[in-house]
Design brief:
The chain contains 4 helices and 24 strands. Strands 15, 17, 18, 20, 21, 22, 23 and 24 form an 8-stranded antiparallel sheet that branches. Strands 2, 3, 6, 7, 10, 11 and 12 form a 7-stranded mixed sheet that branches. α1 runs antiparallel to α2. Belongs to the VPS26 family. This is VPS26, retromer complex component B. Pfam families: Vps26 (PF03643).
Length: about 400
Amino acid sequence: MRSEHSSRIVAVYQGACAVSTAPGAGLRRLQRQGERMRAASRALPAGGCAARPPPPPPPPARSRRSASVRCTAGGRGWLAVLLGAAPQSVEVDIVLNDAESRKRAEHKTEDGKKEKYFLFYDGETVSGKVSLALKNPNKRLEHQGIKIEFIGQIELYYDRGNHHEFVSLVKDLARPGEISQSQAFDFEFTHVEKPYESYTGQNVKLRYFLRATISRRLNDVVKEMDIVVHTLSTYPELNSSIKMEVGIEDCLHIEFEYNKSKYHLKDVIVGKIYFLLVRIKIKHMEIDIIKRETTGTGPNVYHENDTIAKYEIMDGAPVRGESIPIRLFLAGYELTPTMRDINKKFSVRYYLNLVLIDEEERRYFKQQLLPNSILAFAETPGLVSRRWPEHRLLVNYMQRN
């Protein structure tokens, strides 16, 4: 007994045989179709269920290693880029021609540490070599050009995205091409103008540096080397002493005197304090060195005061006619040159403050108590400049009205 499925196959087969004698181009096709149906009918089992054909054999397994070899065989294929295939790596170094003989100077970094850098002055030539060391000798280094720059720039910490360059010199070392082995390129910047002193402060940094750049398709290779620049100045012809009377009317009248008005940074400030009238219970007197850093212009000016030194010159109540000596060594303090309106970005000024403190912890000095009085305590602005081989502190006292 055949199943319904086999009956349909036989009916189709008989219908195909009925039209087998019909003329036309499809006669042979119908005959072959009938033979295939007859063979399928004989292959049916007694239950009438057709046997499922065996699955095709699986394709031969391919090793991961062979696939990876084919992916990287192109060298520059898109898959190699996605997988991070690294190109030729190179180590860049900048060496000055007079590195062995050139002096080094300590300079404070942003984190407050001191490091030594090569020291330059305005107008000096900067020359050396840019060395390229290929790490893989079997690969070539493709580049879009090699250059070196000498840059002087000002960086304001509140505007780190914008660097204000006041010196920018460029030398092309190589045109676009390939490098097959390690080599060095000479460079020279003759009589470079370096108008300002290197400076790192609370809110601003002025730096000079060399920058070597290898331009590449994906990412550039950049190497920087900082240098320190000191500006030079001459000694003023006049170096007169400072003598000034200050105080509070009917309460305190003192006279202070400094032996000279110009000091280098390793000098000693020598002077005296004379008490002409004392009607206030004073218990303490000191001299402060204050650095004022000014950044910005116009309405966006910001002042940052930093007390460099506090030097106690008296402890206890003075009496009328008493004289207190002053001897302040500047070598132990971190003083930098005064900078006035540097590239219209910032200024640095120094002040000497004479401060008196009474028994009630009240502080007497010009800025806070009597700013408009000619008898107020003096605030003496100091101008710091640099002269080889010494620094200079030029003290300008305030004239009374």
